[in-house]
Amino acid sequence: MKVDEITEQALALPSDARALLVDRLVESLDPVEGGELHQLWADEAQRRLRDLRSGEVEAVPGEIAEIKLREKYGQ
User: Would you say residue 34 has pLDDT above 80?
Assistant: First the structure.
């Protein structure tokens, strides 16, 4: 199977399945030992939550974010 075919099939997956696929692909490229990658993502999630709660950043509803991304990237 060619990369273009795999990409097309991957893009047809629901967003949660694509996120899981991305996570697995990244782990395969940059293996981090002892669950360190998961800890790094957990730390990032905690930082983002702190930023939201402190008011440093403002949450954007997913539907609005998707519209803005489609406008920006023309899809």
Answer: no
